[in-house]
Specification:
Length: 76
Amino acid sequence: MNVTLQSAKMMGAGLATMGTTGVGAGVGIVFGSLVMAYARNPSLKQQLFGYTILGFALTEAVATFATMMAFLITFT
């Protein structure tokens, strides 16, 4: 394989993983919001938890897609 192509693939894979940098902050925001909302209105515990799990799953999907793209760039 051409060295230039290989280095471009590695740089592309590195840039693709930059999508995971905001995921940690996103998950923190989601669960921090759960704690604040639960502290304000404890009677909505089940509904708030359902929304939190949905937010967590959507946030983690971004990390999964970014990692998948990095693997696709690297191994194809």
